[in-house]
Records
---
Amino acid sequence: MMKKSDAQALTKLAAHLLAEKDPAAAEGAAEAAATLDPRSFDAWFVLAVARARQEDRAGAVFAYLQALEIVPGHIGCWTDLGELYIALLDYKRAAAALRQAMMLDPHALNPAGRRARAVAGKTMTRLKKQAAT
């Protein structure tokens, strides 16, 4: 019978597979980990990253939302989610996610908080250029 410690081992394996640039294998390991321990932030986060790297944006959004239910204050999750929403052309949700990341890091001390600001700025610039043409 599998247990939470197995989920932790699978999550570590998935993270290693991501580092080795094998997102498909990482996805399988992270899915198994999230199934074994649905309250594992790390399993959902790694699953989201693996899916995003494979351009499964809808699957990645789902996994990020699951991770954020467990750790709602994770700045990196909010920033990644904002970027995914931009890729999906859902600017309202993108703005809300990036705003949340910036609110969680009001002084831009976290690299993900700084990235959220940069992504928001670049997106606004692009949208303004598109509107002008």
Note: The radius of gyration is 16 Å.
---
Amino acid sequence: MSALKETAEILVEKLKDIKMAVLSPYDVLWKELSEIAETPNDSHAGELEASIMLYLSPELVKGRANEEYPQIPKPFTVKDKVKYWPGGVWGNPKKATAEKGKKAIKIMTDKIVEILDRIEKMK
């Protein structure tokens, strides 16, 4: 996200008439989205993301991985992430449902519309 925000700042400076927002649903909607998920600290390929895929493109969901949380030692960046995070899952995708995905998409699209409305009102 940092690189996207920095790029947006450059664009806003160079393109005087542009209006822009950079966001991640997890950053701006963490509280609302975490209320949908039963899994605390859910993230990549976990309950919420699997639910979104079950709602948007269920044919792409080929099964459910086991619950997993990365064990990357803090504050380090490691070369071999698989050593500390073998399945690439952060949460519990077995608790995913299409209904949870539908709720998440509704929350996200409502927020995007709200942000676009705010951008439109900026003068």
Note: The chain has one domain: 26-121.
---
Amino acid sequence: MDELIARVTRVTGLEASTAQTAIGHILAFLQKEGPAAEVSQLLAAIPGAETAIAQSNDGEGGGLMGMLGGMMGGGVMALGQKLMSAGVPMGQMQPLGRELFAYGREKAGEDVMGPIIGSIPGLNQFV
């Protein structure tokens, strides 16, 4: 996870803690919305992925941001709201996604990443 966080911070300029939270949000989103077999392979290929997911979900679900996410109905738009709430500016979401998915391709391969990207509507604009 440290290698991925370092890459994301270098590309986006985000602080390491913000990058880790954002990565956790994205991985949690993939876990919820993506094809189970491929997402499991991706998470297994990224050391610390499960911990990042758990930490990103700490304290989530309530308050105004939880209500907004619920009203958006989920999907990529709700993920974008979570990322903004975590401190990721709109202009850094695409570079963040690109770096995370490039890392995923290196660690898990295109056979894993292709089906994940292809199965989630709207995700391809971030990779």
Note: The chain has one domain: 2-121.
---
Amino acid sequence: MTECVTCELIARRDAGNAPLWDSIHRTAYWDVVHSFNTSLLGWLVLVSRRHIAAVDEMTEAEAIELGKLIRQVSIILKNEVGCAKTYVVQFAEAEGHPHVHFHIIPRMPDQADEFRGPRIFQQLGVPDDARVGEVAMNDLAERIRRNLVS
């Protein structure tokens, strides 16, 4: 296996060393985390707890739990950040992250056209001064955690 930063982050969560926003909710198969490098509050990521590189490698149990989580997280985001809907995206192609993870991205009612659809990714990998702050991510993480049902 090539280097996998995602696996390192999972190990940090397993050790109890992750900040709240990076360990919002953990299930048997998935971690719910807030993206650290986005300008959009509520950009969540569902991360497979075991290293798999493609969706077809998921077990049926992992897939069932994923489906439930996508729905739950989307409902919670609608209630907590007021999005009109969520985008669900999966690539597992980023350098250092050849690990299945799903982006659950709030599409806000007033989302500018230049950030709709796949152009939303312009709001990921932004400079430090444009990123959602840790306090805001932790506040949202607390609200999500209170509303997520295992």
Note: Helices lie at 5-14, 60-81, 134-147.
